[in-house]
Specification:
By secondary structure, the protein is of the alpha/beta class. It has 10 helices and 19 strands. β9 and β10 form a beta hairpin. α4 packs parallel to α5 and α7 packs across α9. The mean pLDDT is about 90.
Length: about 325
């Protein structure tokens, strides 16, 4: 699995959509506490003293059930349970609505330097919400010099040397009704278990560079339906200048599926020779349709080989 960059608890608080409230510690302490796991754990039995399955690297959610349990205990036992839980030093504890940390809980958390946060969402809603955000914040990432388009719903990453015609092909596809995701710079995130999601660079959002013309704002020129800001990558195309003297043999039948690996994830890979007069946008549409057929279990090359083998077998037996 690709390595990820940790997220500090301070970064989590600063994520606007989460609307988290700090309950203790200062910015410096929160910067030191790093979240490395995108999974979230409900406190559950850990607050009752059974901490064998408490994963301290995961954000812990403490809601009404755990709080009601603590309120059934006497002062001494409640203090012991809180101490036992916080002594494990979880990376952060988030109190979900309507619970907020008691002064006793906050004091023990300060002693162990455990960040306490709170949210106005109930546990059942917040758990899915924070998982989605942690997936994004902790995603391993890479940046490629390429184009990313949505062609018939297929996320196509188009690579190739400078000047081979990537941007012109992308513009032609947009004019055919497909969506531009990113031009020139594609920022790619790995989302477990095996998704690659590409997005545009903020500076180049909605823009495409065409040699001889300059920058074009695709959304303003072709409408809001001509762009999107991220897309799952389904296949990868490499445009290469046609070289008759090259020893490399381009695919003729398609029986062998090549793959290209990004961030440890493999995707179907097409190498397309480019020469004067090539209709690349039509080829991209054909690749998208072929990918959809293969996803449904239809493999024309395999069917051809089976029919050929059957025909040869019949001829040999005649």
């Amino acid at each position: 699995m690709p390595s990820t960059t940790p997220v500090s608890v301070k970064q989590l608080i600063d994520t606007p959509d989460l609307s988290l409230t700090r309950e203790n510690l200062d910015d410096q302490a929160l910067e030191k506490r790093e979240i490395k796991d995108n999974r979230v754990q409900v406190v559950g039995l850990s607050i009752a003293g059974f901490t064998d399955h408490l994963y301290r690297e995961r954000v812990q959610l403490l809601g009404k059930s755990e709080n009601d349990y603590l309120n059934t205990l006497g002062d001494a036992e409640r203090s012991a349970r809180i101490e036992s839980f916080l002594a494990c030093r979880p990376v952060a504890v988030i109190f979900t609505d309507p619970v907020r940390p008691s002064p006793e809980f906050s004091a023990r958390a300060d002693a162990h330097e455990v960040p306490l946060l709170s949210t106005r969402m109930v546990s059942s809603i917040f758990i899915d919400f924070i998982r989605e955000h942690l997936n994004r914040l902790l995603a391993a990432s890479a940046t490629l010099h390429a184009q990313l388009l949505d062609v018939f719903g297929v996320g196509m990453l188009i690579m190739g040397e400078s000047g081979v015609g990537k941007s012109e092909t992308s513009l032609d596809l947009v004019m055919r009704g497909h969506k531009l995701i990113a031009d020139d710079v594609v920022e790619i995130r790995f989302i477990p278990p095996d998704r690659l999601v590409g997005a545009c660079n903020d500076m180049m959002r909605d823009l495409i560079e065409i040699r001889g013309i300059g920058l074009i704002n695709v959304q303003r020129m072709f409408g809001v339906t001509s762009v999107n800001y991220e897309k799952q990558i389904d296949c990868i195309i490499n445009l290469v200048l046609w070289d008759q003297s090259a020893t490399f043999e381009y695919e003729r039948i398609g029986a062998t599926t090549r793959h290209y690996e990004i961030l440890g994830v493999k995707r179907p890979y097409y190498i397309i020779p480019v020469r004067h007069g090539s209709n690349l946008s039509s080829l991209m549409e054909v690749i998208a349709r072929d990918h959809m057929l293969r996803s449904q279990g239809v493999n024309v090359a395999a069917e051809f080989e089976q029919n050929l083998a059957k025909k040869l077998s019949e001829m040999g037996g005649a």
